[in-house]
Amino acid sequence: MPRPLIVASCCPLCARITFPDRASIGRHITHLGYSGAGYELGVYRNDEDEAAARGEVVYVYVDRDSRRSASIPAPVRHEMAVLVF
User: Fold this and answer.
1) How many C-alpha atoms does 9 have within 13 Å on its Cβ side?
2) Most exposed among 4, 40, 68, 70, judged by the fewest C-beta atoms under 10 Å?
3) CA distances (Å), 32 to each of 8, 24, 46, 65, in order?
4) pLDDT digits (tens), the chain, 85 positions
């Protein structure tokens, strides 16, 4: 069974989040390919409309034994498809 590996990530902070602030995270998929996906994330403080941090994460699915890229499993791809913008 292929497994996802994070091959790139970043999350620059735009504003401070401190206790007792509440943080919530929004996400969507910006790219859904054969073996990988790119996510965009927003970290929001309290009920503010502007993100306190914006991030990106890229996952690639690889075969556990050969360590080569592999297709995203169909059930996973189905779940990911609803997050594509």
Assistant:
1) 9
2) 68
3) 15, 24, 30, 23
4) 899 999 999 999 889 999 999 999 999 999 999 999 999 999 999 989 999 999 999 999 999 899 899 999 999 999 999 888 7
